[in-house]
Design a protein that fits this description.
heterodimer; A: elongated; B: 251 residues; six-stranded mixed beta sheet; 9 helices; 38% helix
Chain lengths: 289, 251
């Protein structure tokens, strides 16, 4: 089965690399990262920025664009083939629907990995060249080092790895939508609406009663759902690490203790699993007309 | 020996019955003409035979193996064209077929030769490297037929068809083809049937074409199979398949 899925993933990548949207996505993502860093560098300011601060801003912008495209790739993955009628041709081949679904899911993970690597490599290279990675010091007492450059760099690399989880969950949310909605246009429109504001609306409607009726833990899940569905990753722990270092207030309940970190890792995995399992069930039962 | 057998196959869409207790029999080496008016249930049957939709009752058997439990093994030697052929429009005709060959596990070193043979056979080799979005309807139809014929072109030594001759299901294969194309496809089907023992099930509106091509026919009327048998049996006492068809369908 693994060999067959591997073969399907290679076919998916063959198609992906021949689509213009993939190059548009990577280009815009790179532009968001490089543009932020260059704009910060050449904007006159009295307080020169630390390299880690610039990197944090640039990667947040890069991930916001990447998340939107991953969501679009996810929401197009099956719906575009249904709309074009190609899915019929694909399903005639000797594969289980679950194998086709897993190949799509793995491809989304690979897209997330490619975009994350691009953001990180370009961000790190540009910031290193333009700013360097010095110690994080107190803005008032310059001699007080909050965190050494080496330590901050190490944490930054860790957090770059961690951000993959919510990005994959975002892609799986799109994949789930694409199993439900047959029209590619409508699937992308709904995914984009979630990205823009629908995710906030859903969570706003449900988070208050849920935190009152259940407990704060469910609220945490809903906040992450909003982050996943909207692609705004700022509240996910990865970005709060730098906020904490810089003395900013961490989001409600998002702590850097062991339990907080575990939850930060666990919650996107739970959502990704939920979206992929539900999507698979829908896809397996679907009539392809 | 029967390649395909359906037992009391039924399918509804909501309250609308599309197929009612359909029992088809296609023997090895047949070119089976599946005839019926628009909306008779031909495409629904083909979707069921290819596992794109599920029956509400009844069974589909290929070489006595139920499709529901053996789909993977069966689809290795089954090829199909359903309704209007559709492809990845941003890829060339060759790349579309390449993907399908890779999905069938045909090794890379065998694919180039196979694709050239296939593209030559359906008459689009000169435009094979152009994007599908630039193809005419007739060319897309030819490419669709090529995609369905892949199992018939795979050399037995490659082993992807599990040693079984191909079973090809074509839904209205002559749609969009000019008269020259229709003749070419008829000759191609006859050649594959003779040289490679491929079995065909072909749904068509063109009764004269079915008469020239098929050795066996089945006529579907409002989801029910009204007659099935050799061309001679079905045409018994009639001068043409068209008049026999009119008699069975009240046309």
């Amino acid at each position: 089965m693994l060999k067959r899925i591997y073969r399907l993933v290679k076919v998916e990548l063959f198609k992906l690399l021949r689509q213009r949207i993939f190059y548009i996505a990577t280009g815009l993502t790179v532009l968001a990262v490089a543009g932020t860093i260059l704009a910060d560098k050449y904007t006159p300011t009295d307080n020169p920025l630390n390299g880690f601060t610039v990197l944090s801003k640039a990667t947040i912008n890069g991930f916001a664009i990447a998340a939107l495209f991953i969501l679009i790739f996810g929401s197009l993955s099956l719906s575009s083939e249904t709309t074009a009628g190609v899915l019929k041709m694909v399903l005639i081949a000797p594969y289980r629907r679950s194998e086709l679904f897993f190949a799509k899911a793995i491809t989304i993970k690979l897209i997330a990995l490619i975009l994350t690597a691009l953001i990180e490599l370009i961000g790190l290279a540009l910031v290193w060249y333009l700013y360097g990675f010095g110690d994080i010091v107190d803005p008032t007492f310059k001699d007080y080092v909050h965190l050494s450059g080496a330590e901050a760099f190490r944490y930054t690399v860790y957090t770059f790895i961690i951000v993959l989880l919510p990005l994959v969950a975002i892609g799986f949310f799109g994949l789930f939508l694409s199993t439900l909605i047959e029209s590619a246009g409508i699937a992308v429109a709904i995914a984009t609406l979630f990205y823009l504001f629908l995710g906030y609306l859903v969570v706003t409607l449900f988070s208050q009663p849920s935190s009152f009726l259940f407990n704060y833990y469910l609220d945490w899940y809903l906040i992450t759902l909003r982050d996943i569905s909207t692609g705004v990753l700022g509240e996910i722990w990865r970005f709060r690490v730098l906020d904490e270092w810089l003395g900013l207030e961490t989001a409600k309940g998002q702590t850097l203790d062991y339990a907080g970190v575990v939850k930060s890792l666990l919650v996107p995995v739970v959502w990704a699993t939920l979206f992929s399992v539900t999507g698979l069930v829908v896809f397996k039962r679907k009539d392809v007309i | 020996m029967l390649v395909l057998k359906t037992e009391n196959l039924s399918r509804r869409f909501g309250k609308l019955p599309a197929l009612d207790n359909l029992s088809l029999e296609v023997a090895a080496g047949d070119i089976y003409g599946f005839l019926g008016l628009n909306g008779a249930g031909k495409t629904t049957t083909i979707r069921l035979l290819l596992g794109l939709i599920r029956p509400q009752s009844g069974r589909i058997l290929y070489y006595d193996q139920p499709l529901a439990e053996n789909r993977l093994a069966i689809m290795n030697y089954v090829g199909g064209l359903v309704d209007v052929p559709t492809f990845y429009s941003y890829l060339s005709g060759r790349d579309n077929l390449y993907i399908l060959c890779r999905m069938r596990g045909i090794p890379n070193d065998k694919i180039t030769g196979l694709l050239n043979e296939l593209l030559e056979a359906v008459g689009i080799i000169k435009r094979a490297d152009d994007k599908v979005r630039t193809y005419s309807q007739g060319m897309r139809q030819r490419l669709g037929i090529a995609s369905a014929l892949i199992p018939a072109f795979v050399p037995t030594a490659v082993g992807t068809t599990a040693g079984k001759p191909a079973f090809i299901i074509l839904d209205e294969p002559t749609n969009g083809l000019d008269p020259k194309g229709i003749i070419e496809m008829r000759n191609l089907i006859k050649r594959l049937n003779k040289e490679r023992n491929a079995t065909f099930l072909i749904s068509t509106h063109l009764l004269s074409e079915a008469e020239k091509l098929c050795n066996k026919v089945g006529i579907l009327e409002s989801g029910k199979l009204v007659v099935q048998g050799s061309l001679q049996e079905v045409m018994k006492g009639k001068e043409s398949l068209e008049s026999a068809f009119g008699g069975f369908t009240g046309m």
